[in-house]
């Protein structure tokens, strides 16, 4: 319900807790940031201000000479001092209240990559840490920052409306849909069974967006994250819905296992603006070998160059209801991008 998210940061600068709504504002998943250094998320120019506000007296000790400081995303480490409760002001003291502004890394912001947040809260004792000093004795609870982080710029009505419809989908590594949450079923109109019925999931993507999505798919397989991807999805009513998505690779035992995609619906005007900004060159060539991921025999007998009309060649293609048999006969892998285009009904364009 908040226009923001809850953040609890220890005196060393580790994120002890973040509410899951951090994903709606910064694009990072809750589990990605918990128990990580908060300084990895903060603009380098604002790290000292954040460190100052973590200290009860607003004057954190400097790291000893030769020791790495918290700059550059490291936690405070040895420069953090453990205090006894009787050395600190009482917990209800107004001296421990905090209100300051910091720029945080934001995967959803494609202009600067940072979002200015106002952090409002107070330093409170964080219990249950069970930390020990170097001699093995138990340390008393230390002060941690408990704050609500809200964007400096108030959200527009449009942002509030679309934020409430953020949905998540789960996919196999080739992008075949496996699961969709309740909001996704409302936005797209499909049941999970309908999403899983056939194909890699690219058959739900607009032909003009397929190569763009495939490029970010390849990037995600290499780096673990797709980055911001804006494209059109086909709804059950045969309409195109613009979404802004961020996909990330989930690994198990060090091996990629599946893909989780967080998607935010956009209005057509926003989607059109992204389309104008998008570069028109092909994101990868058939010479690189990356295109072989999609196993398309090229050129294809009996088919025009599928990209000669900026990806919209599907308008002129016939509808293939028995696409699997026909595709294999013509040498088109049904799981390739061209196979996905051929599965679509030309009426949707």
From TrEMBL:
Keyword Iron-sulfur: no
PROSITE patterns in UniProt: PAS
Positions of the UniProt region annotated as Disordered: 61-83, 308-336
SMART domains cross-referenced by the UniProt entry: PAS
Gene3D superfamilies reported for this sequence: PAS domain
UniProt entry tagged with the keyword Transcription regulation: yes
Molecular function GO labels: nuclear receptor activity; transcription cis-regulatory region binding
Record's keyword terms, sorted: DNA-binding, Nucleus, Transcription, Transcription regulation
Compartment annotation: Nucleus
Biased composition (Basic residues): 312-326
Residues of the PAS domain: 1-61
One Gene Ontology term, aspect cellular component: nucleus
GO BP terms: xenobiotic metabolic process
Protein name as annotated: AHR protein
């Amino acid at each position: 319900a908040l226009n923001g998210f809850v953040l609890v940061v220890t005196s060393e600068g580790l994120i002890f807790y973040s509410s899951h709504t951090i994903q709606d504002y910064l694009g990072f998943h809750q589990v990605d940031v918990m128990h990580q250094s908060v300084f990895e998320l903060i603009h380098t120019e604002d790290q000292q201000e954040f460190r100052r506000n973590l200290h009860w007296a607003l004057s954190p000790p400097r790291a000893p000479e030769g020791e790495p400081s918290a700059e550059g995303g490291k936690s405070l480490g040895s420069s953090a001092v453990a205090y006894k409760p009787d050395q600190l002001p009482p917990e209800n003291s107004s001296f421990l209240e905090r209100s300051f502004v910091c720029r945080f890394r934001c995967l959803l912001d494609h202009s600067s990559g940072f979002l200015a947040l106002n952090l409002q809260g107070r330093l409170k004792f964080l219990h249950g840490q069970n930390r020990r000093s170097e001699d093995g004795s138990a340390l008393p609870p230390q002060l941690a920052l408990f704050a609500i982080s809200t964007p400096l710029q108030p959200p527009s009505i449009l942002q509030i409306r679309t934020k409430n419809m953020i949905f998540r989908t789960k996919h196999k590594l080739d992008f075949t849909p496996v699961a969709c949450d309740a909001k996704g079923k409302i936005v797209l109109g499909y049941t999970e069974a309908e999403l899983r019925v056939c194909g890699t999931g690219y058959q739900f993507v607009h032909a003009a967006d397929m190569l763009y999505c495939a490029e970010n798919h390849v990037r995600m397989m290499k780096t673990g994250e797709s980055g911001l991807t804006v494209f059109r999805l086909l709804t059950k009513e045969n309409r195109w819905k613009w979404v802004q998505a961020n996909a990330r690779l989930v690994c198990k035992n060090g091996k990629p296992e599946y893909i989780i995609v967080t998607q935010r619906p956009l209005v057509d005007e926003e989607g059109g603006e992204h389309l104008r900004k998008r570069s028109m060159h092909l994101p990868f060539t058939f010479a690189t070998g990356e295109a072989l991921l999609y196993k398309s025999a090229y050129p294809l007998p009996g088919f025009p160059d599928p990209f000669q009309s900026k990806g919209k060649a599907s308008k002129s293609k016939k509808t293939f209801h028995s696409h699997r048999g026909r595709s294999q006969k013509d040498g088109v892998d049904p799981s390739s991008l061209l196979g996905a285009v051929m599965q679509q009904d030309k009426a949707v364009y």
